[in-house]
Recover the amino acids of this structure.
């Protein structure tokens, strides 16, 4: 009876999945699963016979002997349950002496005891954290923690608890050594940079994300509270099974499941708080700025003052107006709610969760921000030898944004001195000398919006059949269907005295639908021979494919109220149909792993993957990626038993292997011609043009040879655990476009043209102490990586301009090292200037930058450029401290970077930047004057003067800053109600807490958020950092966790 | 165990079901491949259209004036105009690299087209024309390159990557010879302007090829050849060309494709527009700020209606009321204080620029360091009354117009010492009459002038007639007068302190080193990749 019902659920969830896809692939996938069902599905039987009930009593305690009230006791296979009282005692009637009792308690390892051993049972429950049987998720399977010899960091759900994260990436920051996460923008819905072990290649450095065994999911659409564990596969040993896409590391995310034989648990978590915008600098007083402008004009040889003494006096009397940047932001509410219902019986488990996040935008005006709804069902069902895991997750993300561009709005608001107003008493939005066209407030309040509406459906069906107790077959079918859309309305705003925003009255719609499908089939073998030889093997086959299509409609001059077409509406020529914006790729693979260990002392592991990718030409499409790992549990040797008893375990690990990276565009191996409308015109009518993309028919994957050496040791009976890893990775055949001279006339696609070495180490240490009065733990991680370009297309070099500076790709240097002049203080007097080397054509004055004449030829030019530091963060660290005392708990999380060269430019460095910015900021007051000869910045001089050119148009180390920082990322203080109170209230758990984020930042650069980066996660410059970003958010919130 | 084996036999079957399914041979849906592209004249035509679009760009057209003594780029460094004009630049400057790269991209488009056109089936006449258009465009790009850089790599065919990395510079003379012979070849196969239908207006004509040839010869100082070429154009052998009746009207949208337009960069309202006027027009006319402003030096070059220069005896010039009785082309080109601005609806209003002079809104007034004009002047020429939002315009920008042919003819004749009343009447006289001069002192030939005196008049005529059309920088470079006009202060209107430069605003200090600045440096990036590329003297 029960079997049938469940089957129905299974089938319907299976069908749901199937309807997601129309691909040729889905059918065999379904057939495969159905056959598994049909062949094995009806061989189950339930045996149940009636007996006299037996009364069982007992006590339950923790390892220190403290009594545990509220532990749930369940008779396995039934819904018969009981709980311990205040003293940890319980009584339960069970069906027979064959019955098994399951003891479970949150945060502790579940224990099963058979009644057959006596009717008075004493049980000791251990902390989950110290669980020796802890299982680690690895590629296509799991492994007992004691048997793991690959370089894998596992982050558990505790890392996500009580933090006001809107996505899982944010929550992972600082949690694993050498997992570098940079938040380059705090705006709701903005992306983050993820890197594992630094920069290993010159192209795409994104790690592979695998969610519940399916490749291609979006980590940011997950509800962080659904995550059970995150495994970060760092070395070739653990990652080679992902072959041609593993060289940047792999992140495996496993979602929570219900527990077997446990009654229904309902958990509700909420965290509600405010994000307060924080600026790291502020403009100088209005009157002060007017004086500074006069000083700059005087220094520039101008005969008339910009502001008269009267005007300056007036500014001072009137006082400062509000800084535009502050006027356009406000504190904004953020809410996180999660409801999880889970449980299970002997054969099946269920978990249903609902999540809701609402992060309001800090911008003023009509409501903006990000909302996400998450819904998930995870089911596991076992019928004898058959096990089925099915997952359906749905995420809906809605972002409402203004219709403009955030960095434009911010920079416009930043630039205006404090003697202008943004809006007058009649509600007119004002333009002025600096913002002639429009102001940010008007755009935010009335300029329309952009609405993103994204649906993400993720499903996976995992069928497992145990042929014998050592051999099982597995079929996995799953995928992700995601539909993104963005609807834009630009509304007209008129400014006073002049300027119009959105006069085109655009109404735009863009939508895109993508489908990722995964089909896997594997056979797994696990057996222990003679109680000491543990042998495991896995062989599998998979196909992964991706397709997407999108359409876009862009209309101009639509109705000002409704945005619908009117008589003068025109369809924008950039509108596109789905065939214009479509792509597909596919990957077929065979993979496998063999593991062996002898008495947990000698370990060996071998894995491989053989991949064929549609991104490469047929003849050279297949690649082989093997790895081998050895481990030595030295303390399990008999001669070390004394050490093991007194000190702890030591394990040594080494792995070597070859990994691939095929993150390049589709179809690059064939030359293609694209046509586009309105390239030119004849007779006042637009005509189409055509462009070409040259091919590289010999394109193939990158190959990264990775060596990893690791030491794992624990001390004080496991209270202190330390792991240390060293790695050395050489990536060759790096996919990147060759340096093409301008004379060639066009760019070229990626070639296998580079070689980069990336070396580093990481250490992580955890100390746990459980005392009578309090428990506490401290986890610290620290990692460093350093890359060096070993070859770029046989001696080529690539110089990329980053505004005033450049970044250089050259053999022997870290990737994209900064290039610029080196400052040698200031010219302090006219005498010093006589005959000194200056940039060609420039006349300088005392107080101007003096540069080092590297080649001593008496002039400053490109030949005098120095190569400066490494822009990638080094010595990234994280520290988490938890302490519990009676009902109180506190956790503190600090995260930071030990070393980074950071470039900042624009108005935050240059006063009155290009005459675009017209205020100075308080941090810029340290400029050169005869009285301040050792200033941070040169003397003031107007845009266009030789001095200004000398000081600010020549990229120099003046623009480079020390990007090291430490940030108190999160602090939480909570209180849990004691069990006796809980019992009276009839609930299982109740915790209240306060949580704060980004409360304190220590940084050498005081005037911008040190987390801002001018690079994306592939270290390609995404535009220089001018600090023109959405403000950093300081969060305070109040949370509640209730369990029923 | 037997049972298991029985089940196991399904595994390969299942495996096969899954395996055979996803094809790895995928082709793009939104692009052609090399094998499917060159199949029709239409598709070849689209590549040619791309080559046309690479000919020039509106930002170069306007900001090139900022490189010369005609205008000042006071905000940002648009197309390198601020730093090049001030003489503070080096081989890394973005503009220099950009001009180099874009022109070679244009050459590549032409070469790819020329190398594949043989595969295209279709109308032989049209194919012949496409080839001629592509050869013209390739010659045009080489001419621009050699004008800026001197010796440059010459690409008469598409290079391989290895060739592109090792190619050395061909001499300026070789490049010019190539350009001239290509233009001759193209001219033979191109239609005249009168032979094109309305839908083909804007295409290259045999007249355009000849006019470009005249310009090349002019820049080379081959005066007799210039005379030959320009006289062929003036005789109507290569199409129907004449001066448009109204100088002001020539730059208005209703008069596009007039007989004066020999070659223009094509724009289409709504679909392909240029935005520069947003940063050049008076703010009260809808501009957001001023980034490019005419200089006092340009304004001073406009003669009086009586034909005399402002400083000349009897000119009648009044410094207190400087804009009256001036060359009518001043009003059609430059916006000055109390300029009678024609609104889009045809009404006229004064523009107030002098500080404190405004009646009503004062946004156009000169305020130091503000967003308004940096010199006291704005731009009128090419202001499009039919502009769309943000002053975007679909007006064609003329690269060669018939007035230029007349000026070239006059200059060459004078250099050959052949200027006389007839030639004057056909050239300078005709231009001045068209501009609206009536005073005989301006229109008739002044027999008292020597060749040198005439040279000054003709050169000044060229400056004012073609002002703000991107030609001045090339002229002062070929005349080798850049060192005289691009050293020292560029000025604005008389709004400053009387004691300094007679009250004319000092807006920008310029430096021009004749030992190096007559040629742009070869871009730094380019020489890093290709070590066979030599550098110009002084860099």
């Amino acid at each position: 009876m029960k079997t049938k019902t469940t089957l129905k659920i299974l089938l319907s969830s299976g069908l749901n999945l199937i309807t997601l896809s129309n691909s040729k692939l889905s059918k065999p996938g379904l057939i495969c699963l159905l056959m598994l069902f049909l062949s094995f599905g009806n061989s189950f039987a339930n045996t149940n016979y009636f007996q006299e009930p037996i009364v069982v009593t007992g006590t339950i305690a923790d390892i220190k002997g403290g009594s545990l009230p509220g532990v749930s006791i369940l008779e396995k296979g039934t819904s018969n349950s009981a709980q311990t009282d205040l003293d940890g005692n319980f009584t339960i009637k069970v069906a027979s002496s064959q019955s098994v009792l399951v003891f479970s308690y949150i945060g502790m390892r579940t224990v099963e005891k058979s009644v057959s051993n006596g009717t008075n049972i004493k049980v000791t429950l251990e902390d989950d954290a110290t669980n020796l049987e802890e299982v680690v998720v690895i590629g296509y399977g799991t492994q007992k923690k004691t048997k793991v010899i690959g370089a894998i960091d596992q982050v558990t759900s505790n890392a996500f608890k009580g933090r006001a994260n809107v996505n899982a990436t944010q929550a992972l920051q600082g949690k694993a050594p050498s997992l570098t996460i940079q938040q380059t923008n705090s705006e709701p819905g903005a992306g983050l940079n993820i890197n594992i072990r630094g920069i290993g290649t010159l192209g795409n450095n994104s790690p592979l994300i695998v969610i519940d065994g399916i490749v291609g999911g979006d980590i940011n659409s997950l509800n962080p509270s659904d995550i059970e564990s995150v495994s970060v596969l760092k070395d070739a040993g653990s990652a080679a099974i992902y072959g041609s896409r593993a060289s940047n590391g792999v992140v495996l995310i496993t979602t929570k499941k219900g527990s077997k034989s446990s009654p229904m648990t309902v958990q509700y978590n909420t965290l509600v708080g405010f994000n307060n915008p924080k600026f790291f600098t502020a403009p100088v007083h209005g009157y002060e700025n007017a004086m500074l402008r006069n000083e700059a004009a005087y220094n520039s040889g101008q005969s008339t003052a910009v502001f008269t003494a009267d005007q300056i006096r007036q500014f001072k009397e009137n006082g400062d107006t509000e800084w535009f940047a502050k006027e356009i932001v406000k504190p904004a509410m953020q809410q996180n709610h999660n409801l999880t219902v889970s449980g299970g019986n002997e054969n099946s488990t269920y978990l249903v969760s609902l999540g809701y996040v609402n992060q309001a935008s800090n911008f003023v005006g009509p409501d903006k921000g990000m909302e996400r709804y998450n819904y998930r069902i995870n089911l596991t069902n076992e019928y004898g030898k058959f096990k089925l895991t099915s997952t359906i997750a749905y995420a809906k993300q809605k972002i409402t944004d203004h219709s403009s561009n955030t960095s434009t709005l911010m920079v416009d608001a930043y630039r205006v001195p404090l003697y202008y107003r943004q809006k007058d008493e009649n509600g007119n939005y004002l333009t002025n000398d600096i913002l002639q066209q429009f102001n940010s407030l008007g755009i935010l309040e009335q300029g329309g919006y952009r609405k993103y509406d994204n649906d993400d459906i993720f499903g996976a069906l995992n069928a497992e059949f145990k042929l014998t107790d050592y051999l099982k077959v597995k079929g996995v079918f799953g995928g992700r269907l995601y539909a993104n859309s963005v609807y834009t309305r630009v509304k007209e705003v008129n400014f006073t005295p002049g300027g119009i925003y959105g006069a085109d009255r655009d109404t735009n719609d863009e939508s895109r639908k993508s489908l990722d499908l995964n089909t896997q089939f594997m056979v797994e073998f696990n057996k222990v021979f003679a109680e000491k030889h543990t042998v495991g093997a896995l062989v599998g086959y998979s196909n992964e494919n991706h397709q997407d299509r999108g359409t876009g409609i862009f209309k101009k001059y639509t109705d000002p109220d409704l945005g619908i077409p009117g008589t003068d509406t025109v369809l924008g020529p950039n509108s596109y149909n789905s065939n214009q914006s479509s792509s597909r790729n596919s990957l077929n693979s065979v993979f496998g792993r063999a593991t062996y260990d002898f008495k947990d002392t000698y370990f060996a592991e071998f894995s491989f993957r053989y991949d064929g990718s549609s991104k490469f030409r047929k003849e050279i499409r297949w690649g082989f990626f093997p790895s081998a790992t050895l481990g030595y549990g030295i303390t399990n040797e008999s001669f070390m038993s004394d050490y093991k008893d007194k000190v702890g375990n030591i394990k040594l690990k080494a792995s070597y292997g070859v990994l691939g990276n095929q993150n390049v565009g589709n179809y690059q191996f064939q030359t293609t011609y694209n046509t586009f409308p309105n390239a030119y015109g004849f007779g006042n009518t637009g005509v189409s043009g055509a462009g070409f993309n040259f091919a590289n028919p010999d394109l193939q994957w990158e190959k990264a040879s990775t060596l990893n050496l690791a030491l794992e040791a624990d001390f004080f009976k496991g209270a202190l655990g330390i792991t240390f890893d060293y790695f050395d990775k050489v990536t060759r055949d790096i996919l990147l476009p060759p340096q093409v001279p301008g004379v060639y006339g066009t760019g070229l696609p990626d070639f296998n043209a580079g070689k980069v070495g990336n070396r580093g180490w990481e250490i992580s240490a955890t100390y746990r102490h459980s005392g009578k009065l309090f428990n506490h733990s401290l986890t610290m991680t620290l990692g460093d990586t350093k890359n060096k370009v070993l070859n770029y297309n046989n001696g080529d070099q690539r110089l990329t301009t980053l505004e005033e500076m450049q970044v250089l790709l050259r053999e022997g240097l870290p990737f994209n090292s900064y290039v610029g002049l080196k400052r040698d203080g200031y010219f302090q007097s006219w005498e010093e200037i006589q005959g000194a080397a200056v940039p060609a054509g420039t006349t300088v004055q005392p107080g101007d930058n003096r540069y080092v004449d590297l080649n001593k030829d008496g002039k400053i030019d490109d030949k005098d450029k120095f190569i400066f530091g490494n822009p990638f963060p080094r010595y990234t660290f994280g520290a988490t401290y938890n302490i519990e005392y009676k009902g109180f708990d506190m956790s503190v999380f600090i995260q930071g970077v030990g070393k980074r060269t950071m470039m900042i430019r624009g108005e935050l460095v240059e006063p009155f930047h290009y005459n675009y910015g017209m205020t100075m900021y308080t941090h810029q007051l340290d400029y050169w004057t005869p009285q301040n000869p050792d200033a941070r910045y040169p003397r003031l001089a107007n845009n266009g003067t030789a001095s200004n050119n000398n000081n600010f148009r020549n990229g120099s180390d003046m623009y480079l800053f020390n990007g090291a920082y430490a940030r108190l990322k999160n602090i939480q203080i909570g209180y849990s109600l004691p069990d006796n109170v809980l019992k009276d209230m009839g609930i299982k758990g109740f915790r209240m807490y306060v949580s704060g984020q980004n409360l304190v930042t220590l940084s050498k650069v005081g005037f911008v958020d040190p987390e801002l980066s001018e690079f994306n996660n592939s270290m390609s410059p995404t535009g220089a950092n001018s600090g023109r970003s959405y403000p950093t958010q300081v969060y305070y919130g109040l949370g509640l966790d209730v369990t029923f | 165990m037997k049972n298991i084996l029985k089940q196991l036999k399904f595994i390969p079957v299942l495996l096969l079901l899954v395996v055979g399914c996803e094809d790895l041979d995928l082709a793009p849906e939104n692009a052609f491949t090399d094998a499917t592209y060159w199949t029709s004249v239409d598709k070849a035509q689209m590549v040619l259209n791309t080559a046309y679009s690479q000919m020039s760009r509106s930002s170069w057209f306007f900001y090139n004036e900022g490189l010369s003594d005609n205008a000042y780029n006071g905000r940002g460094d648009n197309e390198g105009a601020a730093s090049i004009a001030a003489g503070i630049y080096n081989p890394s400057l973005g503009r220099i690299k950009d001009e180099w790269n874009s022109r070679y991209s244009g050459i590549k488009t032409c070469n790819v087209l020329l190398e594949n056109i043989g595969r295209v089936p279709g109308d032989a006449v049209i194919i012949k024309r496409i080839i001629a258009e592509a050869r013209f465009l390739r010659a045009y790009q080489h001419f621009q390159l050699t004008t800026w850089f001197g010796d440059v790599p010459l690409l008469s065919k598409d290079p391989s990557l290895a060739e592109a990395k090792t190619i050395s510079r061909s001499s300026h003379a070789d490049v010019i010879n190539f350009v001239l012979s290509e233009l001759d070849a193209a001219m033979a196969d191109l239609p005249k302007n009168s032979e094109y239908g309305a839908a083909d207006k804007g295409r290259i004509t045999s007249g355009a090829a000849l006019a470009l040839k005249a310009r090349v010869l002019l820049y080379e100082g081959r005066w007799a050849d210039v005379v030959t070429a320009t006289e062929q154009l003036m005789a109507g052998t290569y199409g129907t060309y004449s001066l448009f009746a109204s100088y002001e009207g020539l730059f208005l949208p209703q008069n596009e494709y007039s007989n004066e337009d020999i070659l223009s960069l094509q724009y289409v309202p709504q679909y392909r527009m240029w935005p520069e006027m947003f940063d050049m027009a008076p703010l009260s006319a809808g501009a957001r700020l001023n980034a490019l402003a005419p200089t006092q030096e340009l304004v001073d070059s406009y003669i009086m209606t009586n034909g005399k220069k402002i400083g000349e005896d009897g000119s009648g010039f009044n410094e207190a009321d400087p804009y009256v009785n001036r060359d009518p082309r001043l009003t059609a080109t430059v916006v000055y204080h109390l300029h009678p601005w024609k609104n889009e609806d045809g009404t006229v209003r004064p523009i107030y620029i002098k500080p404190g002079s405004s009646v009503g809104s004062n946004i156009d007034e000169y305020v130091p360091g503000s967003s308004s004009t940096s010199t006291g002047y704005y731009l009128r020429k090419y202001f499009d009354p039919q502009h769309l939002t943000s002053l975007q315009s679909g007006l064609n920008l003329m690269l060669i117009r018939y007035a230029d042919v007349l000026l070239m003819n006059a200059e060459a004749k004078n250099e050959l010492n052949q200027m006389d009343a007839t030639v004057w009447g056909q050239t300078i006289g005709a231009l001045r009459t068209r501009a609206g001069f009536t005073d005989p002192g301006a229109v008739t030939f002044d027999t008292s002038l020597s060749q040198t005196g005439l040279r000054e008049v003709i050169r000044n005529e060229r400056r004012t007639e073609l002002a703000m059309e991107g030609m001045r920088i090339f002229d002062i470079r070929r005349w080798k007068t850049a060192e005289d006009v691009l050293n020292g202060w560029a000025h604005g209107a008389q709004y400053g302190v009387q004691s300094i430069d007679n009250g004319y605003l000092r807006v920008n200090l310029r430096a021009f080193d004749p030992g190096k600045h007559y040629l742009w440096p070869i871009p730094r990036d380019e020489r890093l990749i290709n070590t066979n590329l030599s550098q110009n003297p002084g860099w």
In short: DSSP finds 22 helices and eleven strands in chain B. The longest strand of chain B covers residues 261-265.
